[in-house]
Specification:
Blueprint (H helix, E strand, L loop, with lengths): L6 H29 L15 H5 L7 E4 L4 H18 L4 E3 L8 E5 H7 L14 E8 L2 E8 L2 H16 L8 E4 L5 E5 L19 E2 L2 E2 L4 H12 L4 E3 L12 H14 L5 E6 L3 H4 L11 H17 L5 E4 L16 H12 L5 E5 L19 H6 L10 E6 L22 E7 L15 H8 L7 H4 L6 H5 L10 E5 L15 H12 L5 H12 L4 H21 L38 E2 L20 H5 L9 H4 L2 E2 L10 H24 L7 H33 L8 H7 L6 E3 L8 E4 L9 E5 L4 E4 L4 E4 L10 E4 L8 E3 L10 E4 L4
Parallel strand pairs: 1-2, 1-3, 3-5, 7-10, 7-16, 10-11, 11-12, 12-13, 13-14, 14-15, 15-16
Antiparallel strand pairs: 4-5, 4-6, 8-9, 17-18, 19-20, 20-25, 21-24, 21-26, 22-23
Helix pairs in contact: 3-5, 7-9, 9-10, 15-16, 16-17, 17-20, 20-21
The structure holds 4-O-methyl-beta-D-glucopyranuronic acid (GCW).
The site of 4-O-methyl-beta-D-glucopyranuronic acid has 8 residues, from loops.
Length: 818
């Protein structure tokens, strides 16, 4: 930074504010340290820099001047003064000018122009972008935070604070940042009763007992977090929408949430049920082509805008998983989307119409049935029929947030329609925040996937998914990124401190999908923990490896997560995928595994991709190993590009994955003393638990596939084990929450022995009434393993205990039955 030229005036000013500032600072720092480590502040901890580093910022202006008094600008000013004071350890106070000393100047480009007409950004700026610039204004060395909109200024203020918190050099600052796409939204699947569908971080911030919460403090804090990474909209209720959300009485209540969001530039939107005109509107129809229905949507929307002038729009899930939809009247999704879009249009609102439309009563006996085809089949024929303020919201993959899926071909199938990618931040199929799975690398694979759309015409111009959804390829008026966040009232938002990297990562990617996963996780780690190289190196590594590890002990080779798809979406239960209409089939039988989705012999799904992509997946020779079973049915003895057979890969992958999950514990232990002790222990317990879960998964899947295929593991782990452990079983948490207390024996039934080696993570006595079981703390090796004795050999073991920690029972194998 440039040294201010008027040191004396700075000093005078400083002494004026010093006393008050010091007091304020103490309060801020004290209150911060009192609850910072609950995770509530997430990546906005603004912890004080070590003195040496803080010195670098000695010339940082002691005040921040706002050039206007809009709500958002004032928020930016407050945030900047609070954050900079905390980080730098000296007060930075709010000032309303006129400029008489070095200052941070916060204002829109128009406001800046009035103050300093000669200062112009180095490039054209649109949307919510920002420009950070150190420059002389009226003879004073200032730091300018500006942008075309107030919201851009707020984003700039957060960006400046992030730089300080990560002790980046801000000398000669001159940086323009523009968001990649206008839509950067989160969805919350919150129900009016306060529960969150697929939420693992506590109850809703917004609703409780069928009402909007009286106290919306956390909702405001959430909006702050969202704004800090450039997220500009939030849909607050479940896409499985309760029609009552549109009751007139409810709209007034919901407008309170919008009031709380507004200072942070976050627009509120609502999920709506397409049947609403009938269910709550008293009409005898909800046919989107009926003029009465159009009128109903218009009046309802006008009323919403009367109460919430900056309302964002509606999200629609229709004809999906039992929801009402236009098919009731033989109408199309375009008919349904447009009737709502036309009601929103005069107000500038948008409709997000979800492409997650499929038949969940598919005929599983028919090898040509394929749920993966549904989105494209339903929406591609309608390309061009949707109004300009409709956005088709498309899940990243063609099935449903599995641990690995290819990019949905629909991204390439809409040339005259706006689209947005829907990514799932809440880890429904990827460990439910009880296990570490950093999803940014997965999202990036999809966003960077080149659909080769123009190859036939224009030679190769890359058309990656990120450009398609941002509307850049077909010059669409809008589009972008939607993340299903599902944060809750838990102090740390998502129920796990490390899972917050996914929320941060979503925001950062939505702002700039060209950022690398490494950059994102490094930023997040420094902001959330510290710049201590040991900490950032270890946490960055853990995060970056976690998706592959999770994939390798759950569902490798693109077979899907192999979880309980009809139940909790968490436990291993590969059988649950088959013989039902949900269409998440892996088609494993005695001879082979995988869905044949080829054009030649399978469901034809591959034919939905642009011609230049099809050979990549259609040909076994080209198909990447990690998606093989998504696209092909192959014998277990099929040899992968890696040189291994499919079956051996499955065995090895599960064993390696479980070993690597165990190694997470070892890596984490190296951080003892480097971070807050309570947080250290909390996360350690989670890694220990995950190591146990990985063993559960490993054994369940290896056992299942061994029984199906009859092919032994070349390394004699699975098959040999089955002789010795012919009656192995395991006990594990089957409850929804990490710290819950119900454990059930999972599989198979009726162990004959009375004695088992137990993998568990906490020493404790578990009293189930009868029998009484005990186990000692340890990780899966015979030295550390404890013994459970006394389980009744002839009955399912159901262990009930109380308190966190008992979840640690993860895997038991019989010793004595060999
Ligand atoms: O995978 C499914 C989830 C449902 C969810 C649905 C959707 C909100 O299991 O809980 O419903 O996806 O995305 O609509």
């Amino acid at each position: 930074m440039v040294q201010p030229n008027s040191e004396r005036s700075t000093k005078n000013r400083f002494s004026q504010f010093a006393a008050l500032g010091a007091i304020l600072l103490c309060l801020v720092v004290l209150s911060n340290s009192a609850y910072a480590e609950t995770g509530a502040e997430a990546w906005l901890r603004y912890s004080a820099l070590p003195r040496q580093l803080a010195k670098r910022y000695a010339p940082f202006p002691a005040s921040a001047v706002a050039l206007g008094d809009s709500l958002v600008l004032k928020t930016a000013q407050r945030e900047l003064t609070r954050g900079a004071s905390q980080i730098l350890g000296h007060p930075v106070s709010a000032d309303n000018g006129p400029l008489s000393h070095p200052a941070v100047i916060l204002g829109t480009l128009a406001q800046l122009h009035n103050l300093a007409p000669k200062l112009n950004p180095p490039q054209e700026m649109t949307n919510d972008g920002y420009w950070l610039k150190s420059a002389k204004v009226h003879g004073f060395h200032c730091l300018i935070v500006t942008g075309p909109t107030d919201r851009g200024v707020l984003y700039g203020a957060f960006a400046l604070l992030s730089k300080l918190a990560r002790s980046e050099n801000i000398d000669s600052l001159d940086e323009v940042q523009l968001p990649y796409a206008p839509i950067r939204w989160v969805n919350q699947w919150d129900n009016l009763d306060g529960r969150i569908e697929r939420g693992y971080g506590g109850p809703s911030l917004f609703f409780s007992e069928e009402k909007v919460r009286d106290d919306l403090t956390r909702a405001g804090q959430y909006a702050r977090l969202l704004a800090s990474v450039g997220i500009n909209g939030c849909t607050v209720n479940n896409v499985n929408a309760d029609p009552r959300i549109l009751d007139d009485s409810f709209i007034a209540k919901v407008s309170r949430i919008a009031d709380i969001f507004r200072p942070w530039g976050v627009q509120l939107s609502l999920s709506v049920d397409l049947g609403s005109p009938k269910t709550i509107g008293g009409l005898d129809t909800f046919d989107p082509l009926d003029p009465k229905v159009a009128d109903w949507w218009r009046k309802k929307t006008d009323e919403i805008y009367r109460q919430i002038p900056d309302f964002g729009g509606f999200v629609v899930k229709a004809d999906s998983e039992g929801r009402l939809g236009p098919s009731t009247y033989g109408r199309t999704p375009a008919d349904a989307a447009n009737v709502i879009a036309r009601a929103l249009k005069p107000h500038g609102g948008v409709v997000f119409y979800r492409a997650f439309v499929y038949n969940h009563h598919l005929d599983w006996r028919n090898l040509k049935s394929d749920r993966a085809k549904a989105a494209y089949d339903n929406f591609h024929p309608l390309d061009g029929d949707f109004d300009d303020n409709v956005i088709i919201q498309i899940k990243n993959g063609p099935i449903d947030f599995q641990v690995r899926e290819p990019a949905s071909p629909l991204f390439a199938g809409l040339h005259r329609t706006n689209e947005a990618i829907e990514l799932q931040i809440t880890q429904e199929y990827t460990g439910q925040q009880r296990q570490l799975c950093f999803l940014v690398p997965m999202w990036k694979e999809v966003l960077d996937f080149d659909m080769h759309i123009d190859d036939a015409n224009a030679g190769h111009q890359p058309t990656p998914v990120k450009d398609l959804v941002a509307g850049r390829v077909f010059h669409r008026p809008t589009g972008g990124f939607v993340g299903v966040a599902n944060v809750g009232m838990d102090a740390n938002w998502l129920g796990s401190p490390l899972a917050m990297a996914n929320l941060y990562g979503f925001g950062r990617l939505a702002w700039d999908p060209n950022l690398s996963a490494e950059t994102i996780v490094d930023e997040w780690t420094r902001l959330t923990f510290s710049a201590d190289p040991a900490v950032s190196h270890t946490i960055t590594n853990l995060q970056l490896n976690s998706w592959h590890v999770y994939e390798s002990y759950t569902g490798p080779l693109g077979a899907g997560t192999l979880t309980n798809i009809t139940g909790n979406h968490y436990d291993p239960a590969p059988e649950s995928s088959e013989e039902n209409g949900w269409g998440q089939w892996h088609r494993a039988d005695h001879n082979g595994i995988g869905m044949d989705r080829t054009i030649a012999t399978g469901t034809g799904f591959i034919g939905q991709y642009p011609p230049a992509i099809q050979p990549l997946y259609e040909s076994l020779a080209n198909c990447p190993d990690n998606l093989l079973l998504f696209f092909h049915h192959v014998p277990y003895t099929y040899v992968l590009h890696s040189g291994k057979t499919v079956i051996q890969h499955i065995y090895d992958s599960h064993y390696e994955g479980a070993d690597r999950a165990r190694d997470f514990v070892v890596q984490w232990k190296a951080l003892q003393g480097h971070i807050d002790d309570e947080l250290y222990r909390d996360i350690l317990a989670r890694f220990e638990y995950q190591a146990g879960e990985a063993v559960v998964w490993r054994d369940a899947i290896c056992d299942w596939i061994y029984h199906l295929s009859g092919i032994p593991d070349q390394k004699h782990r699975v098959a040999a084990g089955l002789k010795a452990y012919s009656h192995f079983f395991w006990v594990r948490s089957s409850s929804a929450r990490f710290n819950s207390s119900t454990f059930t024996r999972a599989s198979p039934s009726n162990p004959r022995s009375r004695s088992v080696v137990c993998f568990c993570t906490k020493s404790r006595i578990v009293d189930s009434g009868s029998p009484r079981l005990w186990a000692t703390r340890g990780i899966w090796n015979s030295a550390a393993a404890g013994v459970i004795s006394g389980s009744r050999p002839d009955a399912d073991v159901v262990i009930r205990s109380t308190g966190i920690g008992a979840f640690g029972f993860s895997c038991c194998k019989l010793l004595a039955s060999a």
